[in-house]
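Input record (one chain):
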Amino acid sequence: REMYADVSWIRFIAPAVNMFALMVCFGGLAALASACDSQRWRTIGIMVGVYVVAVVLTIAGQVSPAWSWLQYFSVLTPYKPQTMVAHSGMAWQLLGERNGHAALGLGGCQLVLAGLGAASYLAGAVVFARREIPAPI
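The corresponding structure, as predicted from the sequence alone:
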């Protein structure tokens, strides 16, 4: 207990916001998939497929430096709660530096997730407003 006595709860606000942004992202993707189809089981299957592909791309991108480019195609790459706790001073930066190159900061990761979710919700609303819903069988 004494080891964690001087850890402030404020350190965990950025990771909580990052998790919220991830849930907005997956919620938006699910709303888009649901708007494109009228069967719940297919929507759930699509979202399971999206998650599995994202996990595979993330893990494959971490296996070898030659495959690190695969991480750019995973929706899980901007989800970095451990990094935000470990480097709480950089948790809200929009831009950062990685390997001597300019890169997206941890705060920018939150914007990517929330932006992708918002765009998916908007696209789902447009798709849903323009289609006819067949009666379920």
